[in-house]
Amino acid sequence: MASSVSASDAAAARRQRPSRRRGGAPTIADVAREARCSPMTVSRVINGEGNVREKTRDQVQEAIRKLNYSPNRAARSLAGGAQLRIGLMFDNPSASYLSEFLMGALEEAGGRDIHLEVQSCDNVPDSSVLVRNLVEGGVTGFILPPPLCDDQSVLDLITDAGGIAIAVGPGRASGSHGSVMIDEFQAAYDMTKHIIGLGHERIGFIIGNPEQVASGRRLNGFRAAMEEAGLKVPGQLIAQGQFTYRSGMMAAERLLSLPTRPSAIFASNDDMAAATVAMAHRRHLDVPSDITVCGFDDTDLASSIWPELTTIRQPIRQMTACAVEMIAKISRRSGKRDQPEQVMLPYQLIRRNSDAGPSLATSYNDGRDDK
Question: Which residue from 136, 290, 309, 340 has the least number of CB within 10 angstroms?
Fold first, then answer.
């Protein structure tokens, strides 16, 4: 059964990072910070929902008064418009990615006086039932992160109901009003070239969920960079993961147990990269002296472990905020559109402490165990 979430993970990230709009008018995130609760709780208080403890409600109202926060509800009422309702559906196993994703949507929605309905699709046999319930509840816009942006049946149901669907990340489903993404292939290619540039030749790669388009694009970027450098990619150096920490542990154990282990491992998200660092430490390997480990996404996890991860910074908050903005614009045009809008945002390769040149003690493969 689908359930709303309070975005407690997002609250933790919020306390660590400053508001995107600091210095301007106060946002819902500023109120949440002052009241020491989640932005979703602030939204519930503003909308008069009853499932908030009285003490917490008082804290939120006091924060609103102190910051002089106003969602400009009176101006919207005078304009004769109803409050826009957006549904954010998620089924992503990475808590660190989800935290960033939620915060971007919550902050943008709060600043625009948009009601954001956050719904988990975890353990939901049929996502279409959830979509129908949201539509019946007045939701007109939908944000679809991976893997929902790959589900054609969900997208078709939204468009058939007259809803606005924005995919965040590359997906195989077609017919959305728009999408926001980075160049997954090029980002993985650039990271692989960086690792090769450090002197590594035997590089392991941990794949994400094979059902997600992004996983394949990151793997293809890795393969392309290796091929361009004239380096072999034997099958044993490719380990399957699922974007979860646990799957990263299992994949890393397999790679580090090879007769000739890789001198570097590139995991296709930070959760699996962090798990690789943990597994290396468990095997008494120093990172990066004995093995280089790199990740992808640059979630809070990347800079909260030691050593901090070299990774690809995907602007997750900006991507989901952009999705909210796109829905708001299309809604003002009464859903009318000519061509789906595709927004490609820039990424960055962030170098920290988890990479280095290969150790002289590293034994390279002589070709006997390449398969």
Answer: 136
